[in-house]
Design a protein that fits this description.
The complex is a heterodimer of chains A (about 250) and B (about 200).
Chain A: H1 19-24, H2 29-48, H3 58-78, H4 82-102, H5 115-137, H6 155-201, H7 204-210, H8 212-248
Chain B: H1 2-31, H2 42-177, H3 183-198
Helix pairs in contact in B: 2-3
Classes of the chains: A mainly alpha (about 250), B mainly alpha (about 200).
């Protein structure tokens, strides 16, 4: 078994697609998955709502449940002002969810397992929240860095802490999603490779029998990844809603 | 069964531990460089902009196509439900009005019937009272007539008693004296007795 190795991180390597064109425009399998996710979401909604039935079918009901879920999340967190941000929140949630779930398919790629992608999305949310804050609150936005009721003498200590706390938002937002997706895929890869290693190292009879256990574990991990994928999409989106809620309040 | 479950759990734990250990040893070689952290790779950094572009496209499609599509169906359903509810409320209101009108009609009819019954009862009472009065008058008249007839019969009987008494007295006196007597004397005496007794 010493000769075998598990390349758990190799799955995250990027390769250009569409040949030279892909290389020149820096288009890898990650971008392809982003495009597929961006296409799947509206297409799935279109086919879900195509019949426009008053009494919905299961597919239509599932689409409406997704819509209502995100809507209640946005409006429940931000209030009536959340309605204007709802398309953004819905797009964000469905994009991350589709990305997480697409990554679970064989021969696919989880673009949310790349820190650059999650940082990009987190920075977009962060900058949007700052723009909305400045638009709604003006110069009062900076007053949030001094906690209400705190003695003014504590300002030199509290203001830098608050600024640091505020600036850490995109970092925590991006690393949370990235780390969860990486961990899940590494675990899946390891146990899948371990099965093969058992079969090749101990022979097909013994290794094949023992290989059943990592496979069972992988099935459980896959179920866990389904949960984690939805949960991380939800966490990313609900935190976005909370940041925007802070931004829209006066 | 318990031994088997303990054995299974130990086996799974050892496999997990073995797998982790093997993978850690195997990935040590790559630990120094995660492909995600290879920021010199243009494909890695290219994702930063691509994700924004693709997400922005998705956002536009969702905002102008998907959300209105779902919203349209949901709002149509909501309006239909509201419309149906309004219709149901109107129907209920009309039904309530009809029930109220029915109850009122029934109540009025009951009152009318009661009035009718009362008037008939009063008429009957008055009629029977009138008939009773007439009967009473008739009875009184008959009583008077009867009393008159009795009085007349009595008077008549009394006059006959006087004659009979005179005859009985004449016969008794004649029997006792065993001779004929003047009937006029007997009549006179009897008349005097009757007169004195009547006073």
């Amino acid at each position: 078994m010493a000769g075998h190795s598990i390349d758990a991180l190799g799955q995250f390597e990027l390769h250009p697609i569409f040949g030279v064109l892909g290389e020149s425009i820096r288009f890898s399998q990650s971008e392809l998955m982003m495009v597929i996710a961006a296409v799947i979401v509206p297409v799935a909604i279109y086919f879900g709502m195509r019949r426009k039935a008053v009494v919905p079918s299961r597919y239509q009901a599932a689409t409406e449940i997704l819509y209502e879920f995100v809507y209640s999340m946005a409006v429940g967190t931000m209030g009536e002002k959340g309605k204007s941000f709802f398309p953004f929140i819905f797009a964000l949630f469905s994009f991350i969810l589709a990305g997480n779930y697409l990554g679970l398919l064989p021969f696919s790629f989880a673009f949310t397992s790349h820190i650059v992608v999650t940082v990009s999305l987190a920075l977009m949310v962060f900058i949007l929240a700052i723009i909305v804050s400045l638009k709604n609150q003006g110069i009062k936005f900076f007053a949030h860095f001094m906690p209400v009721g705190a003695p003014i003498l504590m300002a030199p200590l509290l203001v830098p802490i608050e600024i640091l706390s505020y600036l850490s938002r995109p970092i925590s937002l991006s690393i949370r999603l990235f780390a969860n997706m990486v961990a899940g895929h590494v675990m899946l890869e390891m146990f899948a490779a371990f099965t093969i290693m058992l079969a090749t190292g101990l022979g097909l009879a013994v290794g094949g029998f023992l290989g059943i256990f990592p496979i069972l574990l992988n099935i459980a991990l896959f179920a866990l990844e389904l949960l984690v994928g939805a949960l991380q999409a939800y966490v990313f989106t609900i935190l976005t809603c909370m940041y925007l809620q802070e931004a829209v309040q006066h | 069964m318990r031994r088997f479950s303990v054995f299974c759990s130990r086996l799974v734990a050892s496999l997990v531990a073995g797998g982790l250990l093997t993978s850690v040893l195997a990935t040590n070689a790559r630990a120094a460089g995660m492909p995600q952290m290879d920021f010199k790779n243009p494909l890695v950094m290219g994702q930063f902009f691509w994700v924004l572009i693709i997400f922005f496209c998705l956002f536009l499609v969702v905002k102008f196509f998907s959300v209105p599509q779902v919203e349209k169906v949901i709002s149509y359903r909501r309006s239909k439900i509201n419309h149906d509810l309004t219709s149901a409320r109107q129907a209920k209101s009309q039904a309530d009005k009809a029930v109220a009108a029915l109850n009122k009609t029934r109540h009025d009819a009951a009152l009318e019937a009661q009035k009718h019954v009362d008037s008939i009862l009063q008429e009957t009472k008055a009629d029977s009272a009138k008939k009773m009065q007439e009967l009473q008058v008739k009875l009184d008249q008959e009583m008077k007539d009867t009393e008159k007839r009795i009085t007349e019969a009595r008077n008549k009987a009394l006059t006959q008693v006087d004659q009979m008494a005179k005859e009985v007295a004449y016969l008794l006196v004649k029997k006792m004296l065993n001779e004929d007597i003047d009937s006029k004397v007997v009549d006179q005496k009897i008349s005097q007795l009757v007169l004195s007794s009547s006073h």
